[in-house]
Design goal:
Elements (H helix, E strand, L loop, with lengths): L5 E3 L2 E3 L3 E4 L6 H11 L3 E5 L24 E5 L6 H14 L5 E4 L12 H13 L3 E6 L3 H10 L3 E4 L13 H10 L5 E3 L5 H9 L4 E4 L1 H4 L4 H21 L20
Parallel strand pairs: 3-4, 3-10, 4-5, 6-7, 7-8, 9-10
Antiparallel strand pairs: 1-2
Helix pairs in contact: 1-8, 2-3, 3-4, 4-5, 6-8
């Protein structure tokens, strides 16, 4: 809706679906799925994707132009605060001073859960260096609030492990994070299908970021379209306000006042 924009780091966006750029067959498919998703913010793993580091390889930015999309460099694959900070600095250099970044510092290769201690350390340094930090974290409301207080422009709790497709495993923690926040809360990781995205939005999240759920689908472009509609529907349902849950039925047309 035109009057319901995502306000993020001083800019306004119509789409509340953010998408990744990895795991596609090629950059043509990346572009097609991104267009179908309606995403305006696309995240790029600086350590895995060529955006100018190698002049002899295809450049993602030739397909997803920074003039058309907000490029969100991320620190995927970083397992220390120092590596994540270094990667953000490289992204700033490659993107001509670009300051919006997605910070993730992972704890291990198997679960890809965040290393919270290292994440806090890196976030503090990056904010002091005037980066606008969107930060991947677990679904702990206390840590989410602490990252906000450090100056992160968006907090991005996982719904389930990265790439798992398990959906929203702990909606009550996500709900608590949303209720306590004054910055956008964007679910990051774990979405598997359209209904998962709708649930995240119905909880009041400001957006959803996904990659595997789209890129790993049998038809990525069709799934991207489905995710776009799911995010929009979930947001509208949240704004509309659902009816309360009840144990028993309530007649749509009550008997009171009827003529017999």
């Amino acid at each position: 809706m035109q009057d319901d924009l995502l306000e993020l780091a001083g800019r306004s966006y119509r789409s509340r679906l953010l998408t990744g750029t990895g795991k596609y067959r090629d950059f043509d498919e990346t572009l097609a799925a991104t267009e179908a998703s309606g995403a305006e913010i696309v995240t790029v793993a600086i350590r895995r994707t060529n955006i100018g580091q190698d002049a002899n390889q295809p450049n993602l930015l030739d397909y997803l132009s920074p003039d058309r999309f907000t490029i969100l460099p991320n620190t995927a694959g970083c397992f220390t605060a120092a590596d994540a900070i270094r990667t953000c600095r490289l992204a700033r250099e490659l993107l001509d001073g670009h300051s919006l970044v997605k910070l993730e510092v992972l704890a291990d290769q198997k679960t890809l859960f965040p290393d919270i201690t290292a994440t806090l350390e890196a976030a503090e340094v990056l904010v002091k260096e005037d980066f606008q930090v969107m930060v991947y974290t677990n679904d702990d409301p206390i840590i989410a609030k602490r990252l906000e207080e450090l100056g992160c422009v968006s907090v991005m709790p996982l719904a389930a492990p990265i790439g798992s497709g398990l959906g929203i495993r702990n909606p009550y923690n996500i709900l608590t994070i949303v209720e306590n926040a004054t910055v956008p809360i964007i679910v990051d990781a774990g979405v598997g299908t359209a209904s998962d995205a709708s649930i995240a939005m119905e909880l009041g999240c400001h957006g959803v970021l996904m990659n595997t759920a789209i890129a790993g689908a049998r038809d990525p472009v069709l799934m991207a379209s489905a995710m776009r509609k799911a995010v929009e529907a979930g947001r509208e349902a949240f704004r509309a306000g659902r009816i309360p849950r009840k144990r028993f039925a309530s007649a749509s047309s009550p008997l009171d006042g009827m003529f017999f």
